[in-house]
Amino acid sequence: MFTLVALSGCAFNTKYPPVPREQRSLSAQESYLYEIAPGDAVNIFVWAFPELSGTVPVRPDGMLTTPLIEDMPASGKTPSELARDLEEEMALYVRSPIVTVIVNNFVGLPQQQVRVVGEAMGGSGGGGSSRGPAAVPFRKHMTLLDLMIEVGGLTPFAAGNKSILVRFNDGEQVEYSVRIDDLLRKGDMSENISLLPGDILVIPEAWF
């Protein structure tokens, strides 16, 4: 389990290795498929049955409700998987339903988010008007620069070059050194690492 206290206490330790530029990261990004999460808004289109179509929310328990189905598990499924499950259930009431599912609002499961803790401006959609931890839905081919733009960059008190990326490899927690100052202030694109779903970025405060 990720422990912020433990990482904060060693945030200035330079023993962490850089993020490896390995094929695993590229293949994990290429195989990424978005899974529906609680809080998502899902547009369900049933061909030839407009009365069964519409946009519904995924409840906090991961279920959704349609005009014919009171409780359908949705969380953790891809849109295509949910569409096939809806077709199977609706076939009890209508003949040969054809369903398409489109996700309109993306929240992301925790394991499919990239989270930022510490001295980032916050999850204000890139505007930087709020400050604090942020959880950003992972996007295919997402990089560190993409994440920094999403959260509005660093605060004036951040020690960006002493940041730590926490990654879980086959259930094992591994920490890597990340140099955000070099990326944002020097334009060093070699520091623009590829991110993976579930990554946690810890940005410590500078010691003056």
UniProtKB/TrEMBL annotation:
Limits of the Polysaccharide export protein N-terminal domain: 29-103
Name of protein: Sugar ABC transporter substrate-binding protein
Molecular function as annotated in GO: polysaccharide transmembrane transporter activity
Keyword line: Signal
Source organism, top-level taxon: Bacteria
Pfam families: Poly_export
InterPro entries reported in the protein's UniProt record: PEP-CTERM_polysacc_export, Poly_export, Poly_export_N
